[in-house]
Amino acid sequence: MWVRRIASRVKIIDDPEESDEIVRMKTVDACSSSGVSAIKFNQGAWYLGHNSFDVLIDNLERV
């Protein structure tokens, strides 16, 4: 879920409803052409998404 959201946000995928296989292929291709480890991208996207959610929840009462 987080990887899909980050991939959509950084324009790796155009449609957030694309199949998991398409998301995987496009993410691996984008990482490969950029010289970035797809595994590290996956880990970073998950970490970013998870911690962003925590920040939102922690600050929800301020909204």
UniProtKB/TrEMBL annotation:
This is Uncharacterized protein. It comes from the Archaea.
